[in-house]
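YM 10:42: Precorrin-6Y C5,15-methyltransferase (Decarboxylating) subunit CbiT sequence, as discussed on the call
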Amino acid sequence: MAHVSLPHDAKAGPTKPEVRAVLLSKLDLGPTNHFAEVGSCTGAVTIKAARRAGRVTAIERKAERIETTRKNLAANDVTGDVDLREAEAPEGLPGDADVLFIGGSRNYEAVLDHAVETEVDRIVMNVSRLEVAGAATEAFRERDLLEEVVQLQVSHGYELAGATSFDADNPVYMLVGGTDAVATDGRQR
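YM 10:58: structure's back
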């Protein structure tokens, strides 16, 4: 899997590499997919998606973050079909995306409504705050979108007094589903 280089900073943390690995597995992107992303920030997910999906539309509400995404795409030699849009979600989202990633919690309910209206096949939302994770899980359920919730906790080793100790990253809650969601017990919804 190709490395992602992020030489340009967005003054906000990118989705961590370990979380991106699980995220890409859940998104299951292929060359015929139109992937839409809410909150491109550094472009870490945008870069990975552009290497797998046929088309990518990434929206970001802050102009400086769109520019950071653009610069990081160039630094990673991404040449695929990537449309960067400065917009507030759900405005700016395409009506024909079949895979959606929600990287921030702002306006997520309106984004989920858009996903239902446009029949997005797969939706993944990453959340770092417990209270938002609970509310977002309920929002997914209310729209009959929820397939599963995954909590990721990653720790990185470092040397301490000649031995290895660990520093933990903040946990990430990953909500996974779509308009054709299958419940965790295998039943089609």
